[in-house]
Amino acid sequence: MQTINENVVAPRDKFIIFHISGGIGKNVLATGVVKAIKREYPDWNIVVLTAWRDAWQFNPYIYRCYNFQNAPYFYKNYIKGKQNVKVFALEPYMSEKYLLKTSHLLPIWCELCGVELQNEAPEIFFNQREIEFVNNNIVRNDPIFLIQTHGGGNADIKHSWMRDLPIEIAQEVVNEFQGEARIIHIRRDDQLELQNVEQFKGGIREMFVLIRQSKYRLFIDSVCQHTAFALGKKSTITWVRNMPDQLGYAFHDNIICKAQDEIDTLDWSILEPYDIGGQIIQCPFKEGTKLFDTKEIVDSIRKQI
After folding, report:
1. Where are the domains of the chain?
2. Which residue in 110, 126, 123, 152 sits closest to 229, CA to CA?
3. What are the residues whose beta carbons fall under 8 Å from the beta carbon of 209, sequence distance 6 or more?
4. pTM for this model (two decimals)
5. Which is nearest to 247 in space by CA: 56, 106, 147, 36?
6. Are 19 and 88 spatial neighbours (Cβ–Cβ below 8 Å)?
7. Looking at CB atoms within 10 Å, which of 100, 121, 163, 218 has the fewest?
8. What pLDDT does 5 receive?
9. Residue 31 pLDDT exceeds 70
């Protein structure tokens, strides 16, 4: 009796391999790119290869999603001897349009894949139990204020001056909302902590649901701002040197740092002026420079409801 082997792929099938490097936020944004690809190639099966499968769970526009470290038979199934296969292993951050800051990352990435971005946008999908679990175990009946002050970046530096929200400003904001909501701080254990807040200890999928269920949101240019947009949750986003017209969304209330570069630190810059990890030697601000007005941030957050 012949058995069915999931690892055997019918030769008549057509596959698009979408290879994505980078962090979880980049993966969330990429769900919009894949949706555009699926519109252009409706009869092709899209196979995502990534380090962050969490962003792709239950996504109806893809056929399979594999982790780089756990993709058995991948080459045999999808590459070796195949005629009907396309490979999109492209790095939009290295494209001319991105480096020259002439367009947003979404249409740039689509153009590299040979498709046009129309109305596609990032999307995150859940099943019923995920929502119930977060509501019952984390949210309960409390209004939630979520704050992300740090991105992934360099684990040695721990704070990126280039995109992270200065911790003293974040603390001033937190102090304004004490007693109004449960304030939950999304950060790694080794990153700067805030006082009188809870640290989020759940997984990525739980974090996604929590963003959807939250009342207030203050984020930086990282995974949470992409996820909030994907879920239709207007948020306050602070921008130090990255810009929303390249990496953000007009849907959010984007607060851009008004501080000017006071020190010329570009001697060692190559393709971009500043490294997103926040190399210390590249910081162009003098000691004591305040990057954001706390009242502007607080007023923006209150408008969310």
Report:
1. 15-112, 128-302
2. 123
3. 126, 130, 131, 133, 134
4. 0.93
5. 106
6. yes
7. 100
8. 46
9. yes
